[in-house]
Amino acid sequence: MILSVRDLAIGFRRPGGELNAVDRISFDVEQGETFVIIGESGSGKSLTGMSIAGLQPQTSFVSGSIRFKDRELLNRPDAELRKTRGREIGLIYQDPLGSLNPVWPIGNQIAEALTAHGLANRADAAKRAVEMLDRVRIPDPVRVASAYPHEISGGMRQRAMIAMALAAGPSLLIADEPTTALDVTIKAQMLELLAELKREMDLTIILITHDMGVVAEVANRILVMYAGRIAEIGPADSIMRRPAHPYTAALMASAMISETTPKHDLNAIVGVAPGLGAFPSACRFHPRCPMVQDGCRTTEPPKRPFGGVQLACHHPIASADAASLVGA
Fold it and tell me: Is 174 exposed, middle or buried, given 0-12, 13-18 or 19+ CB atoms closer than 10 A?
Protein backbone atom coordinates (compact mmCIF):
# COMPACT_ATOMS: atom_id res chain seq x y z
CA MET A 1 0.00 0.00 0.00
CA ILE A 2 1.39 3.38 -1.01
CA LEU A 3 -1.30 5.67 0.44
CA SER A 4 -3.75 5.38 3.32
CA VAL A 5 -6.36 8.07 4.03
CA ARG A 6 -8.37 7.86 7.24
CA ASP A 7 -11.28 10.04 8.39
CA LEU A 8 -10.23 12.90 6.14
CA ALA A 9 -12.36 15.99 6.74
CA ILE A 10 -11.85 19.30 4.96
CA GLY A 11 -13.91 22.36 5.70
CA PHE A 12 -14.09 26.13 5.81
CA ARG A 13 -14.92 28.42 8.69
CA ARG A 14 -17.40 31.23 8.27
CA PRO A 15 -19.36 33.51 10.60
CA GLY A 16 -21.93 31.35 12.33
CA GLY A 17 -20.28 27.98 11.82
CA GLU A 18 -18.23 25.64 9.69
CA LEU A 19 -18.83 24.21 6.22
CA ASN A 20 -17.57 20.67 5.66
CA ALA A 21 -16.65 20.08 2.02
CA VAL A 22 -15.18 16.60 2.58
CA ASP A 23 -16.75 14.60 5.39
CA ARG A 24 -14.68 11.88 7.14
CA ILE A 25 -13.70 9.77 4.15
CA SER A 26 -11.30 6.81 4.27
CA PHE A 27 -9.62 4.84 1.48
CA ASP A 28 -6.38 3.10 0.53
CA VAL A 29 -4.40 3.20 -2.72
CA GLU A 30 -2.32 0.17 -3.62
CA GLN A 31 1.14 0.37 -5.20
CA GLY A 32 0.96 0.30 -9.01
CA GLU A 33 -2.80 0.76 -9.44
CA THR A 34 -4.85 3.43 -11.19
CA PHE A 35 -7.27 4.65 -8.54
CA VAL A 36 -10.05 6.83 -9.94
CA ILE A 37 -12.06 9.35 -7.90
CA ILE A 38 -15.25 10.31 -9.72
CA GLY A 39 -18.20 12.56 -9.00
CA GLU A 40 -20.01 15.67 -10.14
CA SER A 41 -18.56 19.15 -9.69
CA GLY A 42 -18.63 20.08 -6.02
CA SER A 43 -18.40 16.51 -4.77
CA GLY A 44 -15.04 17.16 -3.08
CA LYS A 45 -12.92 14.97 -5.36
CA SER A 46 -10.37 17.64 -6.38
CA LEU A 47 -10.14 18.95 -2.83
CA THR A 48 -9.40 15.40 -1.68
CA GLY A 49 -6.71 14.93 -4.32
CA MET A 50 -5.00 18.23 -3.64
CA SER A 51 -5.02 17.67 0.12
CA ILE A 52 -2.85 14.57 -0.38
CA ALA A 53 -0.09 16.87 -1.63
CA GLY A 54 -0.82 19.53 0.99
CA LEU A 55 -2.32 21.92 -1.56
CA GLN A 56 -5.74 22.48 0.00
CA PRO A 57 -6.79 26.16 0.22
CA GLN A 58 -5.10 28.16 2.97
CA THR A 59 -8.53 29.17 4.29
CA SER A 60 -9.50 25.53 4.91
CA PHE A 61 -9.06 23.32 7.96
CA VAL A 62 -8.17 19.65 7.65
CA SER A 63 -8.31 16.73 10.05
CA GLY A 64 -7.77 12.99 9.88
CA SER A 65 -4.74 11.17 8.53
CA ILE A 66 -2.95 10.96 5.16
CA ARG A 67 -0.11 8.43 5.24
CA PHE A 68 2.14 8.17 2.18
CA LYS A 69 4.72 5.38 2.27
CA ASP A 70 4.07 5.12 6.03
CA ARG A 71 4.80 8.82 6.56
CA GLU A 72 2.13 11.15 7.85
CA LEU A 73 1.63 14.09 5.46
CA LEU A 74 -1.26 15.92 7.04
CA ASN A 75 -0.40 19.17 8.77
CA ARG A 76 3.32 18.81 8.10
CA PRO A 77 5.39 22.01 7.65
CA ASP A 78 5.19 23.35 4.10
CA ALA A 79 8.98 23.17 3.73
CA GLU A 80 8.79 19.45 4.38
CA LEU A 81 5.89 18.98 1.97
CA ARG A 82 7.77 20.83 -0.77
CA LYS A 83 10.42 18.11 -0.62
CA THR A 84 7.72 15.50 -1.25
CA ARG A 85 5.78 17.37 -3.96
CA GLY A 86 7.38 16.82 -7.34
CA ARG A 87 10.05 14.43 -6.04
CA GLU A 88 7.71 11.73 -4.74
CA ILE A 89 4.23 12.98 -5.65
CA GLY A 90 3.68 14.47 -9.11
CA LEU A 91 0.67 16.61 -9.99
CA ILE A 92 -1.16 17.27 -13.25
CA TYR A 93 -3.64 20.12 -13.07
CA GLN A 94 -6.93 20.55 -14.91
CA ASP A 95 -6.01 23.74 -16.76
CA PRO A 96 -2.46 23.61 -18.14
CA LEU A 97 -2.63 27.10 -19.62
CA GLY A 98 -3.55 28.53 -16.23
CA SER A 99 -1.01 26.36 -14.40
CA LEU A 100 2.03 27.01 -16.59
CA ASN A 101 3.97 30.25 -16.20
CA PRO A 102 3.06 32.32 -19.29
CA VAL A 103 6.38 34.22 -19.39
CA TRP A 104 8.76 31.31 -18.97
CA PRO A 105 9.69 28.78 -21.70
CA ILE A 106 8.29 25.27 -21.33
CA GLY A 107 11.74 23.67 -21.01
CA ASN A 108 12.73 25.98 -18.15
CA GLN A 109 9.60 25.04 -16.23
CA ILE A 110 10.28 21.33 -16.59
CA ALA A 111 13.94 21.80 -15.68
CA GLU A 112 12.95 23.60 -12.48
CA ALA A 113 11.34 20.38 -11.23
CA LEU A 114 14.85 18.88 -11.26
CA THR A 115 16.93 21.80 -10.01
CA ALA A 116 14.50 22.60 -7.19
CA HIS A 117 15.08 19.13 -5.73
CA GLY A 118 18.82 19.13 -6.36
CA LEU A 119 18.57 16.32 -8.90
CA ALA A 120 20.53 18.05 -11.68
CA ASN A 121 22.48 21.20 -12.45
CA ARG A 122 21.00 23.74 -14.84
CA ALA A 123 22.63 22.35 -18.00
CA ASP A 124 21.74 18.74 -17.27
CA ALA A 125 18.20 19.73 -16.28
CA ALA A 126 17.73 21.49 -19.63
CA LYS A 127 18.76 18.32 -21.47
CA ARG A 128 16.48 16.24 -19.30
CA ALA A 129 13.57 18.60 -20.07
CA VAL A 130 13.97 17.94 -23.79
CA GLU A 131 14.15 14.18 -23.10
CA MET A 132 10.94 14.33 -21.08
CA LEU A 133 9.14 16.24 -23.84
CA ASP A 134 10.22 13.55 -26.27
CA ARG A 135 9.07 10.86 -23.84
CA VAL A 136 5.54 12.28 -23.74
CA ARG A 137 5.48 12.14 -27.56
CA ILE A 138 5.81 15.83 -28.35
CA PRO A 139 7.15 16.33 -31.90
CA ASP A 140 10.26 18.50 -32.19
CA PRO A 141 10.90 18.63 -28.42
CA VAL A 142 13.87 21.01 -28.79
CA ARG A 143 11.62 23.66 -30.37
CA VAL A 144 8.84 23.13 -27.82
CA ALA A 145 11.31 23.42 -24.93
CA SER A 146 12.05 26.99 -26.01
CA ALA A 147 8.39 27.85 -26.70
CA TYR A 148 6.02 29.67 -24.35
CA PRO A 149 2.73 28.05 -23.24
CA HIS A 150 0.56 30.20 -25.51
CA GLU A 151 2.61 29.14 -28.54
CA ILE A 152 1.62 25.45 -28.38
CA SER A 153 -1.71 23.63 -28.56
CA GLY A 154 -3.84 22.55 -25.61
CA GLY A 155 -2.92 18.91 -26.09
CA MET A 156 0.79 19.75 -26.17
CA ARG A 157 0.44 21.90 -23.05
CA GLN A 158 -1.13 18.96 -21.24
CA ARG A 159 1.74 16.71 -22.37
CA ALA A 160 4.19 19.33 -21.13
CA MET A 161 2.41 19.28 -17.75
CA ILE A 162 2.81 15.50 -17.65
CA ALA A 163 6.51 15.86 -18.49
CA MET A 164 6.92 18.38 -15.67
CA ALA A 165 5.02 16.19 -13.19
CA LEU A 166 7.19 13.15 -13.97
CA ALA A 167 10.57 14.82 -14.49
CA ALA A 168 11.80 14.13 -10.94
CA GLY A 169 10.67 10.49 -11.01
CA PRO A 170 7.78 10.44 -8.50
CA SER A 171 6.12 7.18 -7.51
CA LEU A 172 2.62 8.67 -7.15
CA LEU A 173 0.95 10.81 -9.82
CA ILE A 174 -2.22 12.78 -9.02
CA ALA A 175 -4.00 13.82 -12.23
CA ASP A 176 -6.89 16.26 -11.72
CA GLU A 177 -9.24 16.17 -14.73
CA PRO A 178 -6.34 15.85 -17.21
CA THR A 179 -8.58 15.25 -20.25
CA THR A 180 -11.40 17.74 -19.59
CA ALA A 181 -10.57 20.32 -22.27
CA LEU A 182 -9.41 17.84 -24.91
CA ASP A 183 -11.31 16.51 -27.91
CA VAL A 184 -12.11 12.80 -28.19
CA THR A 185 -9.07 11.89 -30.29
CA ILE A 186 -6.56 13.77 -28.12
CA LYS A 187 -8.24 12.42 -24.98
CA ALA A 188 -7.71 8.84 -26.18
CA GLN A 189 -4.06 9.61 -26.96
CA MET A 190 -3.60 11.14 -23.49
CA LEU A 191 -5.05 8.09 -21.74
CA GLU A 192 -2.84 5.80 -23.83
CA LEU A 193 0.18 7.91 -22.92
CA LEU A 194 -0.60 7.79 -19.19
CA ALA A 195 -1.00 4.01 -19.35
CA GLU A 196 2.34 3.68 -21.16
CA LEU A 197 4.16 5.92 -18.69
CA LYS A 198 2.62 4.04 -15.78
CA ARG A 199 4.13 0.80 -17.05
CA GLU A 200 7.50 2.30 -17.92
CA MET A 201 7.95 4.25 -14.67
CA ASP A 202 6.15 1.90 -12.26
CA LEU A 203 3.70 4.64 -11.32
CA THR A 204 0.71 4.66 -9.04
CA ILE A 205 -1.94 7.02 -10.40
CA ILE A 206 -4.82 8.79 -8.68
CA LEU A 207 -7.04 10.08 -11.47
CA ILE A 208 -9.75 12.62 -10.63
CA THR A 209 -12.53 12.93 -13.19
CA HIS A 210 -16.24 13.32 -13.85
CA ASP A 211 -16.00 11.40 -17.15
CA MET A 212 -17.26 7.80 -16.95
CA GLY A 213 -15.65 7.10 -20.31
CA VAL A 214 -12.24 7.85 -18.82
CA VAL A 215 -13.04 5.61 -15.85
CA ALA A 216 -13.90 2.67 -18.10
CA GLU A 217 -10.61 3.03 -19.97
CA VAL A 218 -8.09 3.13 -17.12
CA ALA A 219 -9.45 2.35 -13.64
CA ASN A 220 -8.37 -0.52 -11.44
CA ARG A 221 -10.48 0.69 -8.53
CA ILE A 222 -13.08 3.45 -8.28
CA LEU A 223 -14.14 5.80 -5.50
CA VAL A 224 -17.48 7.49 -6.18
CA MET A 225 -17.99 10.74 -4.24
CA TYR A 226 -21.17 12.71 -3.70
CA ALA A 227 -21.51 15.89 -1.65
CA GLY A 228 -18.31 15.31 0.26
CA ARG A 229 -18.91 11.68 1.14
CA ILE A 230 -18.07 8.29 -0.33
CA ALA A 231 -21.06 6.72 -2.08
CA GLU A 232 -19.31 3.59 -3.34
CA ILE A 233 -15.79 2.24 -3.56
CA GLY A 234 -14.45 -0.97 -5.04
CA PRO A 235 -12.91 -2.78 -8.02
CA ALA A 236 -13.60 -1.12 -11.36
CA ASP A 237 -14.99 -4.29 -12.92
CA SER A 238 -17.56 -4.71 -10.14
CA ILE A 239 -18.70 -1.10 -10.18
CA MET A 240 -18.82 -0.72 -13.96
CA ARG A 241 -20.70 -3.99 -14.47
CA ARG A 242 -22.98 -3.80 -11.47
CA PRO A 243 -23.20 -0.39 -9.78
CA ALA A 244 -24.81 -0.83 -6.38
CA HIS A 245 -25.41 2.81 -5.42
CA PRO A 246 -28.23 4.61 -7.26
CA TYR A 247 -25.92 7.60 -7.75
CA THR A 248 -23.23 5.47 -9.41
CA ALA A 249 -25.84 3.89 -11.67
CA ALA A 250 -27.19 7.30 -12.60
CA LEU A 251 -23.70 8.59 -13.40
CA MET A 252 -23.15 5.63 -15.69
CA ALA A 253 -26.51 6.00 -17.37
CA SER A 254 -25.91 9.71 -17.99
CA ALA A 255 -22.82 8.74 -20.00
CA MET A 256 -24.63 6.12 -22.07
CA ILE A 257 -25.86 7.43 -25.43
CA SER A 258 -26.74 4.81 -27.98
CA GLU A 259 -26.62 5.25 -31.74
CA THR A 260 -30.42 5.45 -31.79
CA THR A 261 -30.62 8.17 -29.15
CA PRO A 262 -31.47 11.60 -30.62
CA LYS A 263 -28.52 13.94 -30.19
CA HIS A 264 -30.65 16.45 -28.27
CA ASP A 265 -32.04 13.80 -25.89
CA LEU A 266 -29.27 13.41 -23.28
CA ASN A 267 -29.72 11.43 -20.09
CA ALA A 268 -29.44 13.52 -16.94
CA ILE A 269 -29.63 12.90 -13.22
CA VAL A 270 -32.74 14.44 -11.70
CA GLY A 271 -32.10 17.69 -9.83
CA VAL A 272 -28.77 19.39 -9.20
CA ALA A 273 -25.83 18.57 -6.97
CA PRO A 274 -26.03 20.51 -3.68
CA GLY A 275 -23.58 23.32 -3.11
CA LEU A 276 -21.31 23.78 -0.10
CA GLY A 277 -23.45 24.65 2.89
CA ALA A 278 -26.56 23.10 1.33
CA PHE A 279 -25.79 19.41 1.82
CA PRO A 280 -28.94 17.46 2.78
CA SER A 281 -29.01 15.59 6.08
CA ALA A 282 -28.93 11.80 6.39
CA CYS A 283 -28.26 10.31 2.92
CA ARG A 284 -27.11 13.31 0.91
CA PHE A 285 -28.35 11.83 -2.36
CA HIS A 286 -31.91 11.28 -1.15
CA PRO A 287 -33.50 14.41 -2.75
CA ARG A 288 -32.43 13.12 -6.19
CA CYS A 289 -32.72 9.37 -5.63
CA PRO A 290 -35.52 7.42 -7.38
CA MET A 291 -35.24 4.70 -4.71
CA VAL A 292 -35.63 7.01 -1.71
CA GLN A 293 -37.53 5.79 1.34
CA ASP A 294 -38.31 7.38 4.70
CA GLY A 295 -35.15 6.09 6.39
CA CYS A 296 -32.98 7.75 3.72
CA ARG A 297 -34.22 11.15 4.89
CA THR A 298 -33.53 10.55 8.58
CA THR A 299 -30.48 8.29 8.93
CA GLU A 300 -27.01 8.55 7.41
CA PRO A 301 -26.16 5.24 5.71
CA PRO A 302 -22.99 3.60 7.06
CA LYS A 303 -20.38 2.29 4.65
CA ARG A 304 -20.70 -1.49 4.46
CA PRO A 305 -19.70 -4.42 2.24
CA PHE A 306 -22.09 -5.23 -0.59
CA GLY A 307 -21.46 -7.43 -3.61
CA GLY A 308 -17.69 -6.99 -3.61
CA VAL A 309 -17.69 -3.22 -2.97
CA GLN A 310 -18.00 -0.88 0.00
CA LEU A 311 -21.26 1.03 -0.17
CA ALA A 312 -23.05 3.81 1.73
CA CYS A 313 -26.70 3.22 0.82
CA HIS A 314 -29.78 1.99 2.69
CA HIS A 315 -31.34 0.47 -0.43
CA PRO A 316 -28.66 -0.68 -2.90
CA ILE A 317 -29.53 -1.93 -6.34
CA ALA A 318 -28.55 -5.41 -7.43
CA SER A 319 -28.40 -5.09 -11.21
CA ALA A 320 -26.45 -3.08 -13.77
CA ASP A 321 -29.62 -1.67 -15.33
CA ALA A 322 -28.99 1.98 -14.54
CA ALA A 323 -31.27 3.41 -17.22
CA SER A 324 -34.37 3.18 -15.03
CA LEU A 325 -32.68 5.38 -12.41
CA VAL A 326 -32.20 8.33 -14.75
CA GLY A 327 -34.81 11.02 -15.16
CA ALA A 328 -36.02 11.89 -18.63
Answer: buried
